[in-house]
Design goal:
Elements: E1 5-9, E2 15-19, H1 24-49, H2 69-80, H3 82-97, H4 109-114, H5 127-135, H6 145-159, H7 171-182, H8 188-191, H9 200-269
Antiparallel strand pairs: 1-2
Helix pairs in contact: 5-6, 6-7
């Protein structure tokens, strides 16, 4: 977009922009900005005028001048869609499970970190530095309690190596181990462009997990074998009972036939007049 947007400074408190509106890059940038602004506006409207109320108490008139009543009602109907409401509840539940909320907004980690410039005096930041940068809230001027606790623990792990280790862990290893233990999908280092090096403790954790899974699989196979044997025994018992019923039925039919034959013989000796 270089050369397509020119800024002219007039009065000290004024700024004017000349844009080449036919340039494709300018069109895409403006379209994306408008989409983001519209998405944020809908989010704020939903949070303020829809979420706090039962469906039958949601207002029927537009709460803002920039939206007609018809547009507002169409928006409300889209929010009432059962599938969309179910998706919102699922997303809300997933967000509640997030322990360390990033504070980079809509920017990706990489884009956010590119804005740091020479903050680290041309030194390469480590994983803990990146973790602090991506979880610091400028609005609250600090970290959330969970993030602050995580930073403190990781700093302690770096400064006080675990006894028995041949050499202290690097900051990246500490962050990788800590996030692997406290999050379900520890991809933070990968997302900020740091190659995840599996530390010794991580290897031990993986080995322990594999051993536990192997034992669980062995128990499962044993259980399946036991159940299969029990099924075979029950099947055999049912087959024997079925055969016994068939034999009993045949025996009863045989006795009934003998009884009928004897009765016929007796009746034949006493002819009817």
């Amino acid at each position: 977009m270089k050369g397509t947007i020119l800024m002219h400074i007039g009065l000290p408190d004024q700024a004017k922009f000349d844009m080449d509106t036919r340039n494709d890059s300018v069109k895409r940038a403006c379209t994306q900005m408008m989409k983001n602004a519209l998405r944020q506006q809908r989010y704020r409207l939903k949070k303020r005028w829809f979420d706090p109320y039962p469906l039958h108490l949601v207002r029927k008139t537009s709460p803002v001048k920039s939206m007609t009543h018809e547009q507002w009602n169409d928006l409300v109907e889209s929010w009432k869609d059962p599938k969309k409401m179910a998706a919102c509840e699922k997303n809300k539940a997933n967000r509640a499970k997030v322990k360390f909320h990033q504070t980079t907004g809509s920017r990706s980690y990489v884009v956010h970190l590119d804005t740091l410039g020479d903050k680290y005096n041309n030194e390469v930041p480590n994983g803990l530095d990146y973790f602090k940068e991506c979880h610091y809230s400028n609005k609250k001027k600090g970290y959330t309690p969970s993030v602050q606790s995580a930073i403190t623990e990781m700093e302690n792990m770096i400064s006080e190596p675990t006894e028995g280790e041949e050499q202290p862990k690097s900051a990246n290893e500490v962050v990788a181990d800590y996030l692997a233990e406290h999050t379900k999908q520890p991809k933070f280092l990968q997302n900020v462009g740091i190659q995840i090096v599996q530390s010794r403790s991580s290897v031990k954790n993986v080995e322990a997990q594999l051993a536990a899974e192997k034992m669980a699989n062995a128990d499962l196979r044993s259980l399946v074998t036991t159940q299969r044997y029990q099924i075979e025994v029950l099947t055999e018992q049912l087959q024997e009972e079925k055969q016994a019923r068939v034999r009993d039925k045949e025996e009863m039919q045989k006795k009934q036939a003998e009884t009928d034959a004897k009765l016929d013989l007796l009746l034949s000796r006493y002819p009817t007049s």
